[in-house]
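pls design
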């Protein structure tokens, strides 16, 4: 009995010794498991050899292969009614593209920070044409004055009316300017009722309810000018704040700004009388420089043969035009009709002609009939801003 327990104890101790001396974690391997490392090594060698061959082949291909465009792959369609994946954004509303007009040309690095004038006018939207653009307005001593915007836009462009056709296409163009708007309520109403939008309207600074008339004219689509009183020959006085050769430049500029502040949304200035003032270059220079700086144009009414307005405007880089025909110097209907015919002939001969009249009933009637038959006569009624000589556009 004592021998059996002893033998059992020896066998137990021997088994424990085998377990303690065996490498940790080593389990019996089946024959097929012992073959796995060899297969892994062989597979790695095959992949490496294929990769090297592919790389060597691509390295010898022409450069055009690397530059060939890759067609975009479409995302797999999601089953109808299924929810998007967590990383897939929900589709949103389409973003509207703003193509409402030409953009300003980008300034090129030429050592200048002067804002560039756009090649095409950036006009107001039709629904806003009766409202002054805040970027083109500044507060003066007597009211709101026009100015250039910080980005280079000019009132003569923003407040302009687009012509029927852009560019010189060999069409005989006639500019019709009707002055004295705002002086007579009857004349202003008649002009707005009978004259087509292609006729340019000029407002005198002395009228009543000028802003109301201006807004009505702009809503209808007219391009506007402001009449500025200037000193005539003979010592006459057109009214308060008349520009005069007897005044210094500061006083004339203050009077000019008073007239400018009477209305808004006009493209430029036209002289009211001024026979003497527009023959004196020293008096004109500071006035024309101020008008040009503010981004406006100037129209010489053509009533004075020895006017120096054209020469002074050129030196001031001021957009300029001069009228060829005084339509109603004689207010008889026959005389007005004769002048309108002369205006049409001048336009056919030279390509463009400007005629100026006043808001008299007979003048408005005759001009309305003339404008109605213009297309049939081969004539285009065009706004004055479209035909001025503009140094900035030429540059």
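designed seq:
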């Amino acid at each position: 009995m004592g021998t059996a327990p002893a033998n059992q104890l020896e066998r137990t101790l021997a088994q424990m010794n085998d377990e303690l001396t065996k490498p940790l974690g080593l389990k019996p391997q089946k024959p097929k498991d012992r073959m796995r490392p060899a297969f892994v090594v062989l597979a790695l060698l095959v992949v490496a050899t294929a990769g090297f061959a592919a790389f060597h082949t691509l390295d010898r291909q022409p450069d055009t292969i690397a530059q060939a465009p890759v067609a975009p792959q479409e995302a797999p369609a999601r089953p109808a009614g299924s929810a998007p994946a967590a990383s897939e954004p929900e589709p949103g509303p389409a973003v509207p593209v703003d193509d409402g007009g030409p953009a300003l040309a980008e300034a090129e690095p030429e050592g200048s920070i002067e804002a560039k004038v756009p090649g095409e006018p950036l006009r107001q939207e039709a629904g806003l044409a009766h409202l002054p653009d805040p970027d083109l307005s500044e507060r003066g001593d007597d009211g709101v004055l026009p100015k250039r915007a910080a980005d280079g836009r000019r009132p003569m462009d923003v407040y302009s009316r687009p012509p029927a056709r852009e560019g010189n296409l060999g069409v005989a163009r006639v500019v019709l300017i009707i002055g004295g708007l705002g002086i007579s309520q009857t004349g202003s109403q008649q002009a707005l009722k009978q004259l087509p939008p292609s006729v340019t309207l000029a407002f005198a600074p002395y009228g009543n309810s000028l802003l109301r008339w201006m807004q009505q004219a702009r809503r209808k689509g007219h391009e506007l000018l402001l009449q500025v009183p200037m000193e005539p020959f003979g010592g006459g006085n057109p009214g308060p704040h008349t520009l005069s050769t007897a005044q210094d430049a500061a006083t004339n500029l203050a009077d000019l700004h008073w007239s400018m502040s009477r209305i808004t949304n006009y493209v430029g200035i036209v002289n009211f009388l001024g026979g003497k003032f527009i023959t004196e270059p020293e008096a004109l220079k500071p006035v024309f420089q101020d008008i040009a700086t503010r981004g406006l144009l100037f129209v010489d009414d053509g009533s004075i043969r020895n006017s120096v307005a054209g020469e002074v405007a050129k030196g001031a880089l001021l957009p300029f035009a001069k009228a060829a025909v005084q339509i109603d110097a004689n207010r008889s209907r026959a005389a007005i009709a004769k002048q309108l015919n002369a205006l049409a002939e001048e336009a056919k001969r030279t390509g463009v002609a400007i005629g100026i009249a006043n808001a008299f009933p007979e003048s408005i009637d005759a001009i309305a009939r003339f404008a109605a038959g213009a297309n049939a006569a081969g004539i285009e009624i065009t706004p004055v801003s479209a035909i001025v000589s503009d140094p900035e556009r030429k540059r």
